[in-house]
Amino acid sequence: MTTFNFSDQLLIWFDQSGRKNLPWQQQPTPFHVWLSEIMLQQTQVSTVIDYYHRFTQQYNDIQSLANAPIDDVLALWTGLGYYARARNLHKTAIILVQKYNSQLPDNLYELIELPGIGRSTAGAIMTLAYHQRFPILDGNVKRVLARYYAIEGWPGKKKTENKLWQCAEELLPTHRIANYIQAQMDLGATVCTRSKPKCEICPLQENCDAFQHNVPQNYPSPKPKKIIPTRQTNWLIAQLETGEVLLEHRPNNGIWGGLWSFPETDNSKNIDDFCQNKLFINVANITTQPYIRHVFSHFKLDIHPYIIQCSIDNNHIAENKSLTWYKIDAALLIGLPAPVKLFLEQLQKMRN
Ligand code: SF4
């Protein structure tokens, strides 16, 4: 395995072509590096930028994030997906205030102990914020290294991942560590892209095994295919004559944890009874809406929405504290899963 010149070539390329104007690069404090790294997990830079600006306008340090209600944090995250990231961010901010004097530790092992921070994110914080010498292994770096060394095997497999970590470690330069780590991420995002890598302008082509054998598209090996199951659910979109809709606060665990969504039932045959007994509403009219398919990483969800014109059943007091009537304008400001937000926007248009 040759390590000759890898980092030098990458740093020369970074000086000419690397990204230096990303918003979080302008304030490379541990907080901003951490926040951006969490937002960038599974998400492209172009999507993250607006969210990052909105988030830091509201919470620009660990203390303000820790003091925020989780509902407000989730509301800012609406649409970015993978909501466990936001919940872990908030949990970690609270731990940092309580145990670390509102600072992120400058110790890899302590960082990894915190909710939502894995080895790669901890490595990014250690290098980009604290300029210490640690490797990272995000999706971009995995791809570059798998191609450069023609490493067989899906990177999600422990054996392949260990090999990639070993390569990442061996390649670390002894100088300009933050620029080097940023260069690795940038090269993967802009040159050594998933499809159609731009090998003709790549600084690594001379020693890149996949390029030399004309097979970059063979690396990294794809995830073994699994059939993704499809689940069904029914959304009960209860709406009063005055326009308010009924939303339910979802439990913190599971899909869309901690967000507000429409009440759901598995059984579409007894919607009337469900509304009466669980939602404490009198149904006036039910209209079926076209189904919506939402795709998660591990299953597909077919949602069957029912708009239910109704009135509140004053004979019963709802015991379910997680149910709340919202005006649509107000609902659009709280933490909602993307398809719920979209549906509410359509509902608002239908009423106007
Ligand atoms: S030469 Fe091509 S495959 Fe190899 S690292 Fe560069 S862009 Fe990726």
Write up this protein:
The protein is α+β, with helices and mostly antiparallel strands. The protein has 2 domains: 6-218, Endonuclease III, domain 1; 230-351, Nucleoside Triphosphate Pyrophosphohydrolase, CATH 3.90.79. The protein has 16 helices and 8 strands. Strands 1, 4, 5, 6 and 7 form a 5-stranded mixed beta sheet that branches. The protein is elongated. The structure holds iron/sulfur cluster. Residues 144, 147-148, 191-192, 197, 199, 202, 204-205, 208, 210-211, 216 line the site of iron/sulfur cluster. Iron/sulfur cluster binds next to α10 and α13.
**What is the radius of gyration computed over CA atoms, rounded to a whole number of angstroms?**
24 Å
Strand elements, count: 8
Number of helices: 16
CATH architecture of the largest domain: Orthogonal Bundle
Content of β-strand: 5-15%
Reported by name, the CATH topology of the largest domain is Endonuclease III, domain 1
Terminus-to-terminus distance: 66 Å
Overall 3D geometry?
elongated
Q: Outline the low-pLDDT stretches.
A: none
The CATH class assignment of the largest domain is Mainly Alpha
Mean pLDDT: 94
List the domain count as a whole number.
2
In short, what is this structure?
The chain is of the alpha+beta class and 352 residues long. The chain has helices at 6-17, 23-26, 30-40, 45-58, 62-67, 70-77, 84-99, 108-112, 119-129, 139-148, 158-171, 177-190, 209-212, 271-279, 328-331, 338-351, and strands spanning 230-240, 245-249, 260-261, 264-265, 281-288, 292-295, 300-312, 323-326.
